[in-house]
Amino acid sequence: MTARRKTLQNSADDYGKIVDLLSRMAIHHNNVSFSCRKHGAVKADVHSVMSPSRLDSIRSVYGVSVAKNLMKVEVSSCDPSGCTFDMEGFISNSNYVSKKTILVLFINDRLVECSALKRAIEIVYAATLPKASKPFVYMSINLPREHVDINIHPTKKEVSLLNQEIIIEMIQSEVEVKLRNANDTRTFQEQKVEYIQSTLTSPRSDSTVSPKPSGQKAQKVPVNKMVRTDSSDPAGRLHAFLQPKPHNLPDKVSSLSVVRSSVRQRRNPKETADLSSVQELIAGVDSCCHPGLLETVRNCTYVGMADDVFALVQYNTHLYLANVVNLSKELMYQQTLRRFAHFNAIQLSDPAPLSELILLALKEEDLDPETDKNDDLKERIAEMNTELLKEKAEMLEEYFSVYIDSDGNLSRLPVILDQYTPDMDRVPEFLLCLGNDVEWEDEKSCFQGVSAAIGNFYAMYPPLLPNPSGDGIQFYTKRGESSQEKSDLDGNVEMEDNLDKDLLSDAENAWAQREWSIQHVLFPSMRLFLKPPASMASNGTFVKVASLEKLYKIFERC
């Protein structure tokens, strides 16, 4: 008895545990009256009377606010070869709000805990309840005694069940069905807010603070949930701290406000072509949109480029890696459908012959380009694709603003995003894709194939020249013609390496132009137009790399 007394905490804590235990017992054994009162207190903390209704017991113990938001749930299984059990109970609906999950679980009339069942129920409620709200659940499960294992915890309060996964899955499915059927209406409480005229008329100042009505306090945001960025604020990007401003950065940077204004003015044209196939493709894009990713894209903040393909973006307190190539490809595809037959055009300085470009693309795909073994076959393929594109030239010009003249020369390309020009080194691949990958016979498949080819061509791939930053500078070294051989004491020969200034300058311009386009054209356009498909949630386009709440938990343990 002396050793047991040493493990006890103060009387207040122990009394709270006693009240919680008796409260749970009172709602299960509703045919028994319970009363619990602290020594010296006048009013009982737990008081229930014998009642035929369990809901009345819950009302008397946990209050009216809990009882009025409960729904009855029942699940049973009589499969002799599988699981046999009966479950009945009450679960809270979407109007119930609490900061702590209350699970009252009785198995064979014994108060126990089951962490797996609790976790499964919380997963269902996570998609229904408001953020930081938890459910109230009472369940009574009856099953054969031999199907219960009570020897997994020293206190015997944690149990494990035979066929536990099947039982939990059936209960979870029934709870989900109940919540879906009962989630048509929600009840919200109104709070009157006193209107303050001074907040609208007086200018914003850091030194003056508008007086607040009496009785109202500003809600303090926890530091581990504080969002310190604004997606509409262009300042504070990562590259501003890590990289010096290049001297050869495009002049468009100075006209940032003009660019953004142009992007916003060029919204989706409402007068899209009346072709049913195009409307079906656009409807398919809308139906496959992932609502969570859409919210992220609409309100994310661009931080900077993590490498050649992934960009760092912040949404609320989360940091993501976003695949720029996948995002830009999908955005260009969707914009091609929405701007169908309403394109501006990019005029090429010199018309480009299709046959030569397609032949160049075929040679680039060849594993051994030095051999002339298949040159005749490649030329025939190039001629066939050229003739095919010349036949479809009228349709390509009318719907996609891709102009091919009667001599087989490409002279115009469409404008998918204002202030953005695609990488012209990828034109051969684009033309080959038009010839080989498009199903020209079916209208819907044809428009989808051409739009996909345009989206792939306009995607913001890394430039073909290696990135000159970091170790990539080694690709731009050359042997100087006037280099002198210097012999040291060991007889080793040293060669003076020089940088190819012209090639290095071209590479720096290409990479700077791409990063500028990603920050000032791609991400503003994504916030306006992109509807990310559900596949992007699982194909690695978005990867969460950090969460402020989890970082605080880690640092608190240090």
In short:
The chain has 558 residues and is of the alpha+beta class.
Summarize the SSE layout with pairings.
Blueprint: H1 2-7, H2 11-28, E1 34-36, E2 46-48, H3 54-62, H4 64-67, E3 70-78, E4 84-92, E5 102-107, E6 110-112, H5 115-126, E7 136-142, E8 148-149, E9 160-161, H6 164-182, H7 198-201, H8 239-242, H9 256-265, H10 276-287, H11 291-299, E10 301-305, E11 310-315, E12 318-323, H12 324-338, E13 345-353, H13 354-365, H14 375-391, H15 393-400, E14 403-404, E15 409-414, H16 427-437, H17 443-458, E16 477-479, E17 486-487, E18 493-494, E19 497-499, H18 501-529, E20 542-547, H19 548-557
Parallel strand pairs: 5-7
Antiparallel strand pairs: 1-2, 3-4, 4-7, 5-6, 8-9, 10-11, 11-12, 12-20, 13-15, 14-15, 16-19, 17-18
Helix pairs in contact: 2-3, 5-6, 9-18, 10-17, 12-17, 12-18, 13-14, 13-16, 14-16, 16-17
Folded structure, characterized:
This protein is an alpha+beta fold. It has helices at 2-7, 11-28, 54-62, 64-67, 115-126, 164-182, 198-201, 239-242, 256-265, 276-287, 291-299, 324-338, 354-365, 375-391, 393-400, 427-437, 443-458, 501-529, 548-557; strands at residues 34-36, 46-48, 70-78, 84-92, 102-107, 110-112, 136-142, 148-149, 160-161, 301-305, 310-315, 318-323, 345-353, 403-404, 409-414, 477-479, 486-487, 493-494, 497-499, 542-547. A 5-stranded mixed β-sheet has the order 3-4-7-5-6, sandwiched between helices. It has a 4-stranded antiparallel β-sheet with strand order 10-11-12-20. Strands 13-15-14 form a 3-stranded antiparallel β-sheet.
